[in-house]
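User: My collaborator sent over this chain with a note saying "see what the structure looks like." That's all I know about it. Can you take a look?
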Amino acid sequence: MVSVLQKLRTAGAADSGTGTIANALPMPVMLLGAKLEVIYANPAAEQFFDTGLTLLRKQTLADLIAPHSPLFQLVTQAAERNASAAERDIDLSTPKHGERLADVTVTPVPDPEGAILLTFQERSLAQRMDRQLMARGAVRSMHGMAAVLAHEIKNPLAGIRGAAQLLEEGLPPDEREMTQLIVAEADRIRNLIDRMESFGDTRTFVRHPVNIHEVLDRVRKVAESGFARGVTIVETFDPSLPAVSGDHDQLIQVFLNLVR
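Assistant: Without extra context I'll predict from the sequence alone. Here is the result:
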């Protein structure tokens, strides 16, 4: 049986059926050695890398592909398993060729020892545009779902806030701490929901001077009335700490996540 390398090396021969097929393939095909050096590349691969076969044979895969490309991991995976491995939309972008995505298949071959065969199917501009449009459609769907959820949550939240205010009216001033906490938390959740409705908005939030002691005090009260009930929380911090620049509600959420 003629080896893979022998077949590919005769790619330019007119009397070689295998060579004719290799040359006629519209997709780039490349054979790499055990050290990822280029042994063979068909004409489509020469065009893909914008380099002739003579120069390609003096290079390795690392000379052709950016070091951060997932292709190297795919090659390692195929070599370790001694089985074909394929991946869609692999980033093959380089400063020379710009942004490029391709579906890549890596296949170990027995001859020469340690060699692998790469086939590329580059994503066309239309396919890349379709991919971007699908991603934008997913974002729009998420935005719509967030808006529906926000509407459904806001209605009962307003009821909870109103009920807390009614309870507060019938309580003496020294017993209103819990109802005031309920109202404050309802307002904070409403603000979080408002941000959820603007899902995908990448604008930075407005920063204001925030008293960190008020933030930590709120976190303590929420924790003690809920998930940290029965837990003793000891406050030890410098009361002279200056105001910090940030968002009051988001700082509360961050510290609540940390306390949990």
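A starting point for your reply to your collaborator: The two ends are 66 Å apart (CA to CA).
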